[in-house]
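The material for today's practical consists of a large collection of protein records. There is nothing in a record beyond a sequence line and a structure line. Backbone structure tokens are a discrete shorthand for how the chain folds in space. Nothing more is needed to start thinking about how sequence determines fold. As an example, a complete record with its sequence and its structure tokens follows.
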Amino acid sequence: MKRFSGWFLFVVALVAAFAWAYKTQPSFREVVVGGFGLLASVFTSPFILEATLAVIGLVIVMTYNQRKLDKEGKDEWVEMNVETPGEAEGATAEKKKNG
């Protein structure tokens, strides 16, 4: 059985504390509802909504790429020998002479 990481347990404890405070504290409930209402009105304004979605998408792609690189290992440099057309013709002529 896989053991839970510290982050997972922290998130579960945070959600449980949030749920407990929301259920038992009326002032906490009022602050949370007001905060979510304010955030919803700000994030759904035309420019901010698009910019927020773009930033969130970029963060998701970069996070996925970093995890993939960590899992597969870092890429190393690869050098390619690229011959120009003049070099390729000279090499062909030499092969015909020698062989």
Observations:
- Residues 7-72 form one domain.
